[in-house]
Model the fold of this input.
Amino acid sequence: MCLGIPGEVVEIVDAGRRLAKVDVAGVRRNVNYCLLDDVGVAPGEWVLVHVGFAMSKIDEAEAAQALASLRTMGQVYADEVRAVAESRIE
Done:
């Protein structure tokens, strides 16, 4: 099972390539935000991340609620965080 997981944008790494560093459950990885060109992203904002892409923007309250729900899923949540930790987008 694959999930979208909330992450906080920490910095824009490469605006030309649409790469942002995002903190997902304490793991910081680059994600591509090209799917959000119409709304843009900035440090401090929250996005829903799936397979290395920021899929949508969410607010901090939505992120907290989603993370709380995901944590109740046990191993599925742990697997998703591990997948993020093992991913590399350079």
Q: What stands out?
A: The chain is about 25% helix and 35% strand. The beta strands are 5-14, 19-24, 27-32, 46-50, 53-58.
